[in-house]
Task: structure prediction
Amino acid sequence: MSQISIAIIGLGYVGLPLAVEFAKKYPVIGFDIKQERVNQLRKGYDATLEITGQELNGVLCDRHSSDIDKPAALFITSDSDALAEANYYIVTVPTPTDKNNRPDLTPLIKASETIGKVLKPGDIVIYESTVYPGATEEECVPILEKFSGLKYCTTQPQTQAPSPSALSTQHSVLSSQHFFCGYSPERINPGDKEHTVTRIKKITSGSTPEAAEKIDTLYRSIITAGTHRASSIKVAEAAKVIENSQRDINIAFINELAMIFNRLGIDTHEVLEAAGTKWNFLQFKPGLVGGHCIGVDPYYLAQKAQESGYHPEIILAGRRLNDNMGKYIASEVVKLLIKGDYKVKGASILMLGITFKENCPDIRNTRAVDIAQELKQYGAAVEIYDPWATPEEVMHEYGLEFLSSLNGNHYDAIILTVAHDHFKTLDIRKLLSTPTGIVYDVKGMLPPDQVDGRL
Result:
């Protein structure tokens, strides 16, 4: 293959950090369909805050300037025709669920169509988006074939590995009319500045032994934590989808314990601290389970399981429990208001935090909104403040009013929903309308004597 040229399709939380790292060694075309996002990135600003302006400006280039002659640089565009220059295509688009929690592959399908229109013989398409086992070859490959007019090259597992010379001959013959695929699941943790893209071990796979080797070599060139080459694309897909399903189930168990211990008058966090003294006790905490991964991925696995004729019990039970935690927390706050002789209807309530996790601006699939929406059903007046989120985005996504700053108002109840560092220095009880006002700590961030209830 000629000199490596990479196209990253989708410049969100996953795609942008990957594009920046690759651009330190290779020419990279960063593609996104959102023109506003493209414009911001071209100016050196990343709204997700995953990449600093200094990092971004260090690799950015303008196609029409002399920078394009650099051996490594990042050109950002919304023009799909520019993708034709690449020979590696990496897809990092979202894979959400619809309102009925069924996998929505629309972004993945559209990305495959876009690539198929510019795909050339010998090119390699790598998917990073989380999917159910089989999605790459069953859903994406036919689209690539349809729009490119090329054939997908795959080989069945062999009992004896072919020699390098045989692989080279086979590849040169097939590449005149074939393209290749791989799957290397994303492992980005939004807001985490320690476990960044290069410091997390990467799973790789390919449709042929040579494609698998090329893909693994490509990632090894930037991933300092190393790689693990899976035996097939399906194995790599399955490995990814169970990572977050496992976490979801464990958190559901702890959430259920929290509800039990609450009835028994036992502090859940004290129980977990005591149990955690055993060397093999798994460290999970109760809370809301949202975001684009843990709260979504189990549905992809469940869908595929049901298509195969198996109804998953534990996976869906965990999802039901975690999806209902917002309603549970709202009901606990209502009980505390009633015990404090507050009227629930018209009660003024402040929610501190709307993002799906701490110290991160990501509001995708945040379950904090469930608390607000449930309290509004009771007739409460709910205000939301979060220094990491933007009012316009919250209103657009969820239709919820949002405070740009704490405006001096005082409240009957305050719910600490997200453990932002910013809130650790905030004297929350001073925001209450009376000394007997309610403070509910979802994340267990505050000392027990400063709160009236917590998970």
Summary: Residues 156-160, 169-173 have pLDDT under 50 and may be disordered.
